# Entry
Amino acid sequence: MSKPAITEISCGQQNWVDVARSGPDELKVLRERFGFHELDVRDCLPPLQRAKFVTRLEYLFIILIYPYFFINGIGFSF
# Structure
């Protein structure tokens, strides 16, 4: 099992969780550590089709998709 690609930033009671890849290890952390709803976690699986914003009683769940250029400058991806 590899180390999950998750970075957390906290300020008071607010947390920002950045998930760099959405593999099984990362999804397990989201379910176990944060108690996210199963539908929210499932929407993190590829292929990501659109951004998502959901208001739950305990949390706000947001999926943001940013385009990026390949390092060599030839490609473009999401």
About this structure: The first strand starts at residue 6 and ends at 11.
